[in-house]
Every structure is written in structure tokens, then in C-alpha cells.
Amino acid sequence: KGEDFDLRIRVHDDKFEIFGNQKEIHVYKTRVNIAAVEYFAVRKDVQLKGVHWGGRYYNLPFETQFPGGYLRAEERVYVYGIPKGDRFEINFLAQNGDILFHFNPRFKEKK
Questions:
Q1: Where is the Galectin domain (predicted)?
Q2: pLDDT of 58-104, one tens digit each?
Q3: Which of 12, 20, 47, 89 is close enough to 104 for a disulfide, judged by CB 3.0 to 4.6 Å?
Q4: In this structure, what DSSP letter does residue 67 have?
């Protein structure tokens, strides 16, 4: 109560995977065809800060060019995922492959 939360629902053909604050909460087996779901509703006592849907399964390594050919000032890059190992990396690259920004969180290393 009173704290920010991040709730994600990953939709599969036969189940919903529910994640709260980056941790798996539960997996619900679907009882209906996913195509029958037509609406999304949030009700009751909550301050809603945003809703986003979309997504797909991404194969790694994943690379894509920014719209218009390059990253612009004041744009945002959102990366959603769940770490499956001790580390991963995100890089911003120049056209020639030079790494211009490198982010490499490591989860099991001591500080």
C-alpha cells in the first residue's frame, strides 16, 4: 500500500505468466481461447501511472536500427526483460560497430 509497483502479464497460447516487481508471482492456465479476450480494465483503489501492451519473443543477440537511422536527444529507450543468468549487456553501437555506450549489470558479484 502506498508503494509503486510494476505488474507484467505475459500472454501465451495456454497460460498467463504474472510478474510483480520483476519476480514471477504465478502462472495461470487459460480456460478460454486468448482471441476471446477483447477488453482490459483496471478498477478500485489504485493510482494508475501507465499501461502498455505489446511485445513479442526476441531472439538473442538482438540488434535493430533506431527509427530514422540514429538515436535523437530526448528519446527514451525502454528495455523489458527478466534476467535468466548472472549478467547481460546492452550496447549502443555506431554504424561501424564501435560501442558508444555499454551497460553490463552483474547480479552475483560482490560490491
A1: 1-54, 63-111
A2: 888 999 999 888 888 888 888 877 788 899 999 999 989 999 999 99
A3: 89
A4: G
